[in-house]
Amino acid sequence: MAKRIPIGRAILFFGGTVVLPAVAIFYHAFSEGWGAYVASILDPEALADRIAIMDHGRILRIDRPAAAVA
């Protein structure tokens, strides 16, 4: 019985800090259905904003000149 209380508290903490926010994020992402989700991924403007290259610990945006990033 003494081991169950800390284990239960750990499960509640994990659920409140990891599982609950993840469920909320996925619920919001899919709230308008798969069509809206896929459309937002395939949107050319949004796609250009997400394309990035890692270079020495910093992100260089492909859609912007390298001189503007440095």
How would you describe this structure to a colleague?
With 70 residues, this protein is mainly alpha-helical. It folds into 2 domains: 1-31; 33-70, no CATH class. Helix content is 66%, strand content 11%. It has a two-stranded antiparallel sheet. The longest helix is centred in the first third of the chain and has 26 residues, at 4-29. The model is unreliable at 53-57 (pLDDT under 50).
Features of this protein?
single chain; 70 residues; mainly alpha; 2 strands; 66% helix
SS field, number of helical segments: 4
N-to-C CA distance:
59 Å
Mean pLDDT: 75
Query: How many strands in all?
Result: 2
Order of helices and strands: HHHEEH
Query: How much helicity do the residues have?
Result: 55-70%
Strand order of the largest sheet: 1-2
Silhouette: elongated
Secondary-structure class: mainly alpha
Assess the beta-strand content as a share of residues.
Answer: 5-15%
Query: What is the number of domains?
Result: 2
Unreliable segments (pLDDT under 50, ≥5 consecutive)? Answer: 53-57
Rg (C-alpha, Å):
20 Å
Sheet with most strands:
2 strands, antiparallel
